[in-house]
Amino acid sequence: FAAFSPTVFVQGNKTLVAYQTLPYGKDSEVHSGCTRVECVEVKRDGDGYVILGRTELLPIVHEPRADGFAGLVTPLPKRCASGDGRWLIVSTTCRCEQAPIAVPIRVGGTASTDSVVRLRLRGVSEVVALEVLDVMGDHALLVASSLSMPPLPLVVTFDPHNMGELTIVHPPIDQLHPFLRPAAASPGPESSDCQCSLMASALSELALAVAGDGFQNVMQQLAGVQCQTVQDRHLLVTPPQKTDTLTKLPLALWIHGGPHACSTNVWTIGAVYLCLSVGCGVLLVNYRGSTGFGQTELHTLPGNCGSQDVEDCRAALMHVLNSPSLGTAFDRQRLAVVGGSHGGFLTTHLIGQYPDLFRVASCRNPVTNIASKASAADCPELVFYESLDTVYNYRPVPGEHLQRLYDMSPTKHVEKVRTPLLMAVSEDDLRVPPSQGLEFFKTLKAVLLDRARAEGDASGAERVRLLWYPKNGHALTEAEAEADYWVNTALWFAHHLK
Predict the structure, then answer these.
(1) Quick check: 466 and 440 in contact, CB under 8 A?
(2) Containing H/E element for 6?
């Protein structure tokens, strides 16, 4: 059997290995989705080990529970078992939240999603993203963040006999971010000698040393940022309100990649930067097929890329604009859209299918022509499954398949594009070859030049710009390149949204 993300621990006199796995079939063909968690007992046999039995701890979850739990979609940490070996403490995506969960370890038992416990910080009313990094005994090292709070390390304790709440033991209460201070502050158990606490303290000191004096200034700006959930799946971030103006805000549609990923309440520096620097609202949308909403919904996207996801993004935007409680804050004439990878695919689709909707757009490493990408990317099997809902057999591709792939691509709509577009391309991208961005850029440039000549608009050809980043891969997360891209995107947006 295939296994990944193993974690080794002891339960009584048994040595156990928990791991993630996927059954053969549709659940293993998607790019990323819900995984199954299993456990085996191992025993030394001469120079090696033998497996004595296998137990399923957590099945693939097809429909989310009422509290949002929809299965495990993130890797198991290297150490995530409680000290008594009875629980796995991990984090996963629950709708649009990143949340910790406790999975019971019952060797020889029957797996049930009902026994999985969603964990929360004791006494903390604010909803923050929590990522589990390490577990030792009844302590866990977490990273807490939100769309208005940069990542902060926390040490928490839990009661393995009464799972449900996590108690913060480091940093001290008086040093906590206001979001993390319990409503009724009470000291937690002493933990000064805990290795997790020492690690968290070192991380905190390192973060402050790197940030310097500017840290407090940034925190003051973030204090006014507001975030709310829309339709129980999207997130809307707005900048601090200015009491001296009644001007409506621009609104940027933020589209994640994947396609099977999720925009959650975790700290997202690009979205926060646009919100503060441009002074716009940012709608982080989760189209059907995003993780965190169950495997059944996830399987609706393959074969429908370029249509279902495009319409979902537009519908989410229209919901906000038409909402009596939300829409009055935004200017319908100053809309922007931004996304990377599959989010770039959807960005270029939207400005082609709806050429009068957005005032400005930005994308990075976008998929623009699936037909030409299929033979050039490092993942042809992903291209064919997500686009055609079929298995790639490494044989010559029939012409009708290539035509379908082209028809699903943004390139088909390029001649309708009027929205100013900033494109960022990584030179060393293997997942989405740079030829994808270059192809769309050159084609759009030609379209805009022809239109400029026909309409007598000398500035028409300046409506598309390309940023080229050497020594960067698909994620475009090298510090200098990432900063350059977001600064240029903010300037591009500010210019075209004024």
Answers:
(1) no
(2) strand 4-11
